[in-house]
Amino acid sequence: MAQTSWPHPVPLGGAITDVDGVKVGQFTDARRPTGCTVILTEEGATAGVDVRGAAPGTRETDLLAPTNLVEKVQAIVLSGGSAFGLESATGVMRWLEERGIGFPAGPARVPVVPAAVLFDLDLGDHKIRPDADAGYRAAQSASTAAPAEGSVGAGAGATVGKLFGLDRAMKSGIGTAAAKVGGITLGAMVAVNALGDVIDPASGNVVAGARTENGKAPLATTGALLRGELPQALQPGMATTIGCVATDAQLTKPQAQKLAQLAHDGLARTIDPIHTMFDGDTIFVVATGKSGLPGNMVVLGAMAAAVTSSAVLRAAMHATSLREPGLPDLPAWRELRG
Question: Residue 155 and residue 173: Cα distance in Å, rounded?
Fold first, then answer.
């Protein structure tokens, strides 16, 4: 049976900017629901990535393979706008280059700025999407303050529970959380634009996702599928959850890549279904090393999964309903929860 009420989960607090050496800046486009988020590591951070979804839109991910040359990145970009939104990383590169920040390459310093995008082109004029200027402005606004959450930045156009149509989906956004264990801090920032539902792992109940036909109760997507309810025909790449985990532990590139893999456990706990053919789920890891401690990979993996799952919950809980003429009517958890 479908769940009849919306739960009130209690995720971890904190923010990715609790990690020493990390700043966050965001740009939200006022013309339609889209935007971008930059995680700045100006002094450089060892990085890794793990892509699990089957429809990713990414930039510079091959560079992060442990066998490849460059060890550190200066920023990670999360953006709306589908593949068009990758242009926002160019603006972040320009901002960093103006400050002489980047990988030494002959006469130049080339900023290393991996990026991932989510699909939000179905909300308003699809020709409006984050560009280089948006990325520059996001970098320009970056600070160590706790970043805004909800329907801002890369989460401005994020939605969840789309398997049975956008008219039965809900608004989502971007969230962040952090934890400190044994002198090491680890934080995450996740833009949640999943085909599936956001789930409270403590109760198994739907926090935000596909709704029943009357729109008043959660459907529980996987349960509906198992009952034989068939989803709408969808095009590939219509969703995607993207995020970044940051830590002040000292990590090698192989360790950073492994930590990115472990962080996906946090997505699997809180999004159902996850890693589908229509999602491009991607998690980056940046390690600033500022704590001076190597960290225990078992402990860091547990932290990454827990903090990532909390960031997902916060993305849904802080989202704002979309009620604009000409756009789909998308309620958020805060409205339905009352």
Answer: 4
Give 15-36 pLDDT, tens digit per residue: 999 999 999 999 999 999 999 9
Range of the domain at 254: 16-337
Between β-strands 58-59 and 108-110, what pairing exists: parallel, antiparallel or unpaired? unpaired
What is the domain-level CATH number for residue 289?
A: 3.60.70.12
* 54 domain-assigned: yes
**CB under 8 Å to 207, separation ≥6 — which residues?**
6, 7, 9, 197, 198, 199, 200, 313, 316, 317, 333
Q: Is residue 5 part of a domain?
A: no
Within 204-325, where are the H helices?
221-226, 253-270, 297-317
- Whether 331 maps to a domain, the answer reads yes
Write out the two tokens for 91: 């603006």
Degrees to nearest 5, angle at CA 154 with 208 and 335: 30
Q: What angle do CA 14, 17, 22 make, to 5 degrees?
A: 155
The residue ranges of DSSP E strands in the chain, in sequence order, are 23-28, 35-51, 58-59, 72-79, 103-105, 108-110, 115-117, 159-160, 170-171, 174-181, 184-191, 197-199, 206-208, 242-247, 271-272, 282-287
Full-model pTM = 0.96
Work out how many domains the chain is built from and give that number: 1
End-to-end CA distance of the chain: 22
Kindly give the pairing relationship between strand 72-79 and strand 108-110: unpaired
Instruction: Give 3-state DSSP helix, strand, coil % of the chain, rounded to 5.
Output: 25, 25, 50
pLDDT tens per residue across span 46-102 = 999 999 988 899 999 999 999 999 999 999 999 999 999 999 999 999 999 999 999
Both structure tokens of 217: 């109760």
Cis amide prior to 273 (ω within 30 degrees): yes
41 within some domain = yes
